[in-house]
Amino acid sequence: MIGGIYMPFAFFYPKLSNTWSNKPNNVVSQHLEKSLSKVLTNYYPLAGKLNDNISVDCNDNGVEFFTTKINCPMSQILNDPYFDKHNLVYPKGVPGAYSYEGSLAVFQLSHFNCGGIAISMCLSHKVGDGYTLGNFMNHWATITRNPMSSEIYPISPKFDGSSYFPPTKDEDSSNVLNNNIVPERENAVSLRPPLPKNTMGNNFSLFSILTKEEKEMDLAQVVSKLRKEKEEVKQKYKHAKIEEFLPITLEQYRKANDLLVNNSCYDLYRFSSLIKFPLYDVDFGWGKPKEVISPNSTSNAPIKNIFFLMDSKNRDGVDVICSMKEQDMLAFERDEELLQFASPSS
């Protein structure tokens, strides 16, 4: 049920400080590769191979790690999301790919001529979600920073996860966006209760609401409907036995699919929340990232009509990474109602 698309995220660090400031590029690369090999023993499915698109052969085949030099300052990429070299911080051809013959997780270390670096990870959604990626990056950073750390836990042999997004900034942000796009749509939200640190994989459900008329697009009404529907789905899983999870999930998928089939004349927009994920805590020993990004906007984006909600760096707001058709994006950025809540990137 999960698409095999590769989720790309890049973590940007300014000119390295302290003991790393004068280290040659190859020393930094070797240090990261060494710690990567250690953390993979705790996330062993990522080093395996996908079999028949339904299972992972944990054959310890390893992952791909690339290094590159980008001949521009880091600021040129971070300050202009439409810069044509934006995707150079990711392994070529991997972000957003559905078919890739390489490893299930692919990494790249990019050195900028200003002395800063970017570390990117592309993870197959077949074996993990944003929660998995965030945990992996933090555990990798911890081992890099302190090889003797006791914070690393081996993953569960069951290789699954169950999750939900709490109804806080997610709802408000999604619905401010929702009010400014189309009058009717499926709203898919992952269910994420508290998880042990060793959980990875995918196990999520869907729920949907309809807003056929403009009066139903009122923010308070939409949030209320979302909360009601989400609570009903949560209760189904809360009182179910483990063996009942799959039938419940399949039923939710069927309902969502029926909604799309019966309303196929409408465009589909996807919302995915990474709020409260510790992406800005990924510290390899040279400080926390200046910026965390994913490919976005205009014609170069791997997926169209998708919105990623993330905590802002200072945790005092929400960053929304948008991917839309160019003409839709231009209109979206000029929407007067939206501009009351948000400021487009410059």
From TrEMBL:
Keywords: Acyltransferase, Coiled coil, Transferase. The keyword Transferase applies. The lineage of its organism: Eukaryota, Viridiplantae, Streptophyta, Embryophyta, Tracheophyta. Residues 212-243 form a coiled coil. Belongs to the plant acyltransferase family. It holds the Pfam family Transferase. This is Acylsucrose acyltransferase 2. InterPro entries: CAT-like_dom_sf (IPR023213). One of its GO terms (molecular function) is acyltransferase activity.
